[in-house]
Amino acid sequence: MDLSPPIVIKKKRHSLLSRWRIERLVKMAMSGKRAHFESYDAFRRTLRGDLPTGGGAPIILAACNELYYWEFARTFLRSIEAVGAPERVHLHLCEPSQKALGDVEALSASLSAVDLTFTWDQGESARLPAYPTIYYAAVRFLIAPLILEATRSTVLCLDVDGIARLPITPALSAITGDEDVRLIKRPGEKSVRRVLASALAIQPTDAGLRFAGRLGRAIAAILKIRPRYHVDQIAIVRIVEAMEARGELRTAQMPHSFADHEFAADSAVWTAKSWQRKNSEAFMSAKGAINGAFENS
Description:
Layout: H1 16-29, H2 37-44, E1 48-49, E2 59-65, H3 66-83, E3 87-94, H4 98-110, E4 114-121, H5 132-151, E5 155-158, E6 162-164, H6 168-175, E7 181-185, E8 195-202, H7 206-223, H8 232-245, E9 251-253, E10 269-271, H9 275-278, H10 281-295
Parallel strand pairs: 2-3, 2-5, 3-4, 7-9
Antiparallel strand pairs: 1-4, 5-8, 6-10, 7-8
Helix pairs in contact: 1-7, 1-8, 2-7, 3-10, 5-7, 7-8
């Protein structure tokens, strides 16, 4: 069981060479359905467990390693259950212990409002980048295309270190229009920071499926060049902007209430983006209340 503290990546940017290589791989992913197929298929073959099946309500997708499972994922799932609205949730675990697998299976059986499915891997892809945290942050975008293909349902990718405050997918459905992708754009930021990957919804439209497939294949290929910084946001930014420029993708702004770092009372999800926020009084109090209620029930 690996419960070691997460590695902090000190250099928070890609080198010029690395960025050039990443952008080249993204352009290749845009060129056709078979681009980077081998890299993506190699990832797919590492998966264990069960994906969700059947159409219907949107599916919340999150991912974590062993540490984040015990520290955050269980709280996140319990918070969704506590809200009480029916939700479909898929959790991917990176290199979990048998104890964690047993716990998530038992948790799945105990939840009534949450229809939980889960997959896991044995850490093969986590060893590709320079730091495994790069993979942990990106893996949900590798899983998303598989869920879209299997269910033809909307997939809402969220950070696992969150706490549900309101029914999540009903809040999403209330604002869904004719977009293919809904994401948090930050036009005032530079380069890859123009998107925040904390909350991103992909619709099962033809364009949504193309976007998800391109993103998954691009990330799978980028991981193999041993990047030293996060790859999900740069891939999202480049693919969204390229598809929008071609008129191939309709996007809409995701409200920050689906990944609220300021913990507003009327937000759908509180997300603790940094360890300072994770250890804040507001987040720790909410986390303790949720877990205490379940452990005392």
